[in-house]
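Many introductory courses stop at the sequence. We go one step further.
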Amino acid sequence: VSGAFHSPLMSDAAKKFSLFLEKIPFNEPIFPVVSNATGNYATSARRIKDNLRLQMDHPVLWEKSMRVLMSDNFTTFMEVGPGKVLQGLMKKIDRKVEVKGSGLEI
């Protein structure tokens, strides 16, 4: 990668980001959100905010996140943005799930 993302070297930026997030009102989610920082569901606005901050200076638990979704019978996934890196990673986890690219570039 081109930076120290998702590592302790980002802790100063994570603190600033946390202060920024506190200024933004979050509604309680209608659906649970899987966090790549924990690999588990977040079911409250507070937990989602906390997890967004954690993503900056903690390892990404992407595979754990995907396995949590698959254990709850999710079988179709879509990668939004350029490239197909996550599609390739998902196929290494389980070739039976359907993985699509959105064609959208952000």
